[in-house]
Amino acid sequence: MQMTPVVSSNIHSIGYENSTLYVRFHSGSLYAYYHVPESIYIGLMNAPSHGHFLHKHVKGHFSYKRLS
User: How many C-beta neighbours within 10 Å does residue 14 have?
Assistant: First the structure.
């Protein structure tokens, strides 16, 4: 799975594979969000603020696990 770097004050890079959304933060933490529709991933990648989109449309809506 390839992580794509993004311009964000909080998010370093984003990846998506098999309906799992991966988000690496500048702190180094990597999170996996499960059962995320591709439309949410596309919206996140195209959002003017990745952090705002993540907070509004992903956090609290999908189960997740901190991987590192």
Answer: 19
